[in-house]
Design goal:
Elements lengths: L1 H6 L9 E5 L4 H12 L3 E5 L12 E5 L19 E5 L4 H9 L4 E4 L7 H46 L3 H14 L4 H10 L17
Parallel strand pairs: 1-2, 1-3, 3-4, 4-5
Length: 208
């Protein structure tokens, strides 16, 4: 993570919009002052975010007085990096802050620095979570497609009296002839499994 942060290009904060979700207080004032010095456009909210706040680049929220329903998204589903402002170390408060998906935190009282570091860490953590979620979805999709390929191979084995090796080759040939991926061809075969045997693999309106 250290190397990743070191190689990360500087954040273009001048184009960022930050939302500070905190009751009127010196803590909120200190955060806003640092954000504005860094060039961000800042909006303060309390007690709830508004629908258009979903377009913000970062949300900095109070973990001490925060409550469910403040965000227009579910816990852990924020579309931007989140930074928690933490004063109380009560387990319930820390747990609530974590449940929202905090990517970084700032401890109260807020001093004259620290916000930039929190922005950098939160941005990096949010991007890492986003990449991980995409990778998980990709893996799930591959597993699903692999299952479809196996089902299509079994259908070809039964329909054409082939062994597994020949059925696999048949599937590849059908995919090549129809200029599809093996996975797409397999899905077509599975969808058409109720057709007569002569229809499987036969050119037609669907190209199978």
């Amino acid at each position: 993570m250290v190397n990743a942060l070191a190689n990360r290009p500087p954040l273009q904060l001048a184009s960022w919009r930050a939302v500070v979700l905190h009751p009127p207080h010196a803590v909120a004032d200190a955060v806003v002052a640092q954000l504005e010095r860094l060039g961000l456009t800042v909006t303060c909210r309390w007690p709830d975010l508004q629908a258009d706040d979903a377009g913000a680049d970062v949300v900095i929220y109070d973990a001490d007085m925060g409550h469910d329903g403040q965000f227009p998204w579910g816990p852990g589903e924020a579309p931007m990096p989140l930074i928690a402002l933490i004063g109380s170390e009560a387990p319930g408060r820390i747990g609530w802050a974590l449940a929202q998906g905090a990517d970084a935190h700032l401890l109260k009282p807020i001093h004259s620095s620290g916000v930039y570091s929190a922005l950098l860490i939160a941005s990096h953590a949010f991007e890492a979570k986003r990449r991980a979620a995409i990778e998980i979805l990709t893996l799930k999709d591959r597993l699903t497609k692999r299952s479809v390929v196996v089902r299509a191979t079994l259908i070809l084995m039964q329909a054409e009296g082939l062994d597994e090796t020949l059925a696999t080759k048949r599937l590849r040939t059908l995919a090549m002839e129809s200029r599809r991926t093996i996975e797409d061809m397999a899905e077509e075969i599975v969808l058409r499994r109720g057709l007569p045997r002569s229809a499987i693999g036969r050119p037609g309106r669907s190209g199978v």
